Amino acid sequence: MEKENKIQPGLTLKGLRHTVGTILAEMGYDHGSIALILGHATETMAKHYSRRADLTKKAEATMNSLAAEMNIRKTKVIKLDK
């Protein structure tokens, strides 16, 4: 496949696992789901294969959800007269 230019030189199954694990983690999937897709019985290897994922977007979305929830839960401050 490499000679036919269907894949880039050096492509390995391990590299593909890292790519898929990273993409799934960046999409927001949990380690259990990643392990299922990669064919692993436990989440340990899924964590290994997705460890380089950029989780910035996921963290930002989580913080936005937290901020929205905090706004819902705000209570009015009451000042007591002496």
Overall description:
The chain has 82 residues and is mainly α. It has one domain (13-73). The protein is built from four helices and no strands. It has helices spanning 13-26, 31-38, 43-49, 56-73. The model has no long low-confidence stretch (mean pLDDT 89).
Strand percentage, roughly?
under 5%
In whole angstroms, how far apart are the ends? 83 Å
Structural shape: elongated
Major pleated sheet = none
Order of helices and strands: HHHH
Rg to the nearest angstrom?
21 Å
Number of helical segments?
Answer: 4
What structural class do you assign from the helix and strand content? mainly alpha
Low-pLDDT segments, ≥5 res: none
Number of domains: 1
Helix content: 55-70%
The overall pLDDT average reads 89
Task: State the total count of DSSP E strands.
Answer: 0
Keyphrases for this structure?
82 residues, mainly alpha, 4 helices
Helix-strand layout with pairing:
Elements (H helix, E strand, L loop, with lengths): L12 H14 L4 H8 L4 H7 L6 H18 L9
Helix pairs in contact: 1-2, 1-3, 2-3
What's a concise summary of this model?
The chain is mainly alpha-helical.
